[in-house]
Amino acid sequence: MTGETLKLKVAALADIAPGLRHVRLVAADGGKLPPAAAGAHVQLALAGAARTYRNAYSLVSRPGARDAWEIIVRRVPTSRGGSAYIHECLQVGEVLEAGWPGNLFAPVRTARRQLMIAGGIGITPFLSYLAEFAFSGVEHALHVCCRESEQQVFDPWLAGRPGVSWYWDADGHRLDIPALLAAQPAGTHLYLCGPAAMNEEVLAAAAAAGWPDTHVHCEHFGSALSGGEAFRAFLARSGVEVEVGEDESLLDAIERAGVNAPCLCRGGACGVCATPLLEGEAEHRDHFLSAEERAAGLLIMPCVSRARAGRLVLDL
Amino acid sequence: MTIAFKPEETFRGDYTYRNSDAAVLRFPFPFPEDRYMYSVNIEPHVRSGPSDVFMRPFDVDEHYIAECRDKAITLERDPGRCQVLPHMMLAQWDTLELLMESLSADYPALFSLVKEGDDFGSRWTWTNRPLGLEQSFIFGDPATLPCEPFEYITRQAQGDFAICDQRDNNLYMDAGMVTSQADWSLEFDVGMSFMEWHGPVPLAHQTGVFERALKYLLMLRLGQPVRRLNWTMTINPRLDTSPENFPEWGTDRASVTPDNAGQKVHLRVELQTLWRLPRSNAILFPIRCYLASLDDLARVPKWGARLHRVLSSLPRELVEYKGLTRYLPAALEWLAQHDDGAELPVGTESGVTTLAPR
After folding, report:
1. A1 touches B: beta carbon within 8 Å
2. If you measure CA to CA, which chain B residue comes closest to A2?
3. Which domain range does residue B36 map to?
4. Do A265 and B42 make contact, defined as CB atoms within 8 angstroms?
5. Which residue of B has its CA nearest to A289?
6. Between A227 and B156, residue with greater pLDDT
């Protein structure tokens, strides 16, 4: 059960509501997928017109499912990137490259009670939460704010599960967030996933009500550790100039150019790849260099760090 | 691949544990250089490396049957060596699945797993031929196993296992099966955070090793396990060097002389791996222990000489923390005869394919 990338084949596509597309993915080789669970996401490489987009989507399939993964993708009206591709171009049978599942939004299993608040498509991570909580038996409730017409869209994943309440923008149907938070017993953990404005409103209400930060969890996709703006780096000792793409690390680009760079963890922790920086300003993303070393600007960890602007010159 | 098990050997009492020549040659010798200091020596746990023990994610060797029996003896005497906090049930099933899938895939002649489905609620049948076990159970239903799933599968695996729950940007040691530990106590550490259980380690805190290691582990990816080697020394080939049983083994340190050090003193190497678990998002931390006597190690000329140099230059704090103070002079006197002072190549490879006769 090891690997970094997977080939996934699109097994089915369905528009389940205006602007919402359901995608069922299976292993392209016909084998089993790794198990993934509540809160997990998968990053898909989607070939757009200008470049490849790497977008992360919550898995809404059964926790631990190994036959197929499911995602639900909302069409972002202004998007020319991943969501537009999925809605306009993706075909059944197409094979996509994907990363192994990640999880930056796992439920806390020591919680006495699990409280979830979703806004619109933000319900997706909670579909797998509900399945897990139903299995484990932990006390839980999900409050969903959406359009009145969207209530039935997620029925196939809710399967009549108890503890789900619906709210929409009409008198008598809005969620009273402060009242909901005030009514929770101590030991409750709060999870929220929705539009930024909703997230901020709930976070502010939780802070005002005295909830400890450790008990409030907000979904964010931040797994792109090594990617960012493209930039160039010159390897002074080798006399080689490398182009670092948006989706690769500086270390990847150095290796692609055939230059040997020492490395070990490839995650910014071990310090083995620390390389003298002769010119340019680094955007440090490692856990190794101290604040003083960063300020001095004499070292860079190419496995995770990038150029803040312009070109870097490395002693390599 | 055939493994010639040694089911009768013992890790206590008459200590009949011995390494075959093949076991010595595949020993995961931990010192690439003549000096040793702590570092975040973490690397991807891939199927390659300078020792054969790295070739499979969970290594099974000639000591498997005897080691599982020694573990059962320790658990019989002290059931508290296996502890799991109540919120760790998903992580227990994750561990069982990972071990059963890996062992049956890598050692099909020894283990097999037949599944009627992959989801919770499916019937699975597990066969462990070396231990003569067959068990049919419902994946996800602990009542269908003779004990809880973590204890069930780790009783059938070499080495210790801890599971760290991840929450509040920290790791908590919320489960463990610990019967072959280098003088630490699960009973004491269970429920502790990462910094708490590493508190006693000297010198490493000052260099920020643990802050970096924790940040790195919090980002550990599913499907991309990592590994490191750790080491200490043990008198006699004893797996259960626990604080709970210190009176049974602590005094052995006073029995070492320059004459018997070759047989008595063992290098104890831990292959520590770290695995993100899929359902629970916890981290599984297997600690696989390998023991080799100085006699064994000195049959590889590079290893005998290098161990002499590493131990000669070890910082005093580490000598004390690892509990070597009492017998280190005798061990060094014994090792000195195997060190001619010539420069040794960097790296841990043995550099030989056969051993000198005993």
Report:
1. yes
2. B223
3. 21-336
4. yes
5. B212
6. B156
What is the mean pLDDT of the segment spanning A287-316? 91
Interface pTM (ipTM) of the complex?
0.89
Tell whether A103 lies on the interface with B, counting CB pairs under 8 A: yes
> What's the one-letter identity of residue A76?
V
Contact B221, B198 (CB under 8 A): no
Q: For A219-233, how does the pLDDT look when each residue is reduced to its tens digit (9 = 90+)?
A: 854 333 557 789 999
Is A265 within 8 Å of B222 when comparing Cβ atoms? no
Tokens 């790794």 found at? A34
A282 closest CA partner among A263, A309, A303, A253: A309
Name the residue type at position B213: A
pLDDT given at position B193: 96
**A36 and B222 in contact by Cβ < 8 A?**
yes
Does a structural domain hold residue B355? no
User: Is the distance from CB of A233 to CB of A311 less than 8 angstroms?
Assistant: yes
- As for how many domains chain B has, the answer is 1
Closest by alpha carbon to A157, among A137, A176, A131? A131
Distance from C-alpha of A44 to C-alpha of A52, rounded to nearest angstrom: 10
Residue B126: alpha-carbon gap to chain centroid? 24
Contacts of B211 in chain A (CB under 8 A): 287
Secondary structure of chain B as H, E, C letters: CCCCCCCCCCCCCCCCCCCCHHHHHCCCCCCCCCCCCCCCCCEECCCCCCCHHHCCCCCCCCCHHHHHHHHHHHHHHCHHHEEECHHHHHHHHHHHHHHHHHHHHHCCCCEEEEECCCCCCCEEEEEECCCCEEEEEECCCHHHCCCCHHHHHHCCCCCEEEEEEEECCEEEEEEEECCCCECCCHHHHCCCEHHHHCCCCCCCHHHCHHHHHHHHHHCCCCCCCEEEEEEEEEECCCCCECHHHHHHHHHHHHHCCCCCHHHHEEEEEEEEEEEECCCCCCEEEEEEEEEEEHHHHHCCHHHHHHHHHHHHCCCHHHHHHCCCCCCHHHHHHHHHCCCCCCCCCCCCCCCCCCCCCC
pLDDT tens, position by position, A19-29: 999 999 999 99
How much is the average pLDDT of B204-220? 82
Residue B261 domain flag: yes
Confidence tier at B314 by pLDDT (50, 70, 90):
very high
Measured in angstroms, the CA of A32 and the nearest CA of chain B are apart by 9
Residues of B designated as active site: 228
Q: How far apart are CA A307 and CA A300, in angstroms?
A: 10
Cα(B248)–Cα(B254) distance, rounded to whole angstroms? 13
Domains of chain A: 5-99 (2.40.30.10), 113-218 (3.40.50.80), 231-314 (3.10.20.30)
Q: Give the residue numbers in B contacting A (CB under 8 Å), as ranges.
A: 39-46, 57, 87-90, 97-98, 101-102, 118-120, 140, 165-168, 208, 211-213, 215-216, 219, 221-226, 278-281
Q: Does residue B350 sit within a domain?
A: no
Lowest mean pLDDT among A163-167, A245-249, B192-196, B306-310: A245-249
Average pLDDT of span A136-151: 93
CA distance A59 to chain B (A): 13
Asked whether the predicted pLDDT for residue B125 surpasses 90, the reply is yes
C-alpha span between A271 and A288 (Å, rounded): 6
Residue A50: pLDDT band (50, 70, 90) is low
Give the least confident one: A5-14, B111-120, B304-313, B349-358: B349-358
CA dist., res. B126 & res. B141, Å (int) = 15
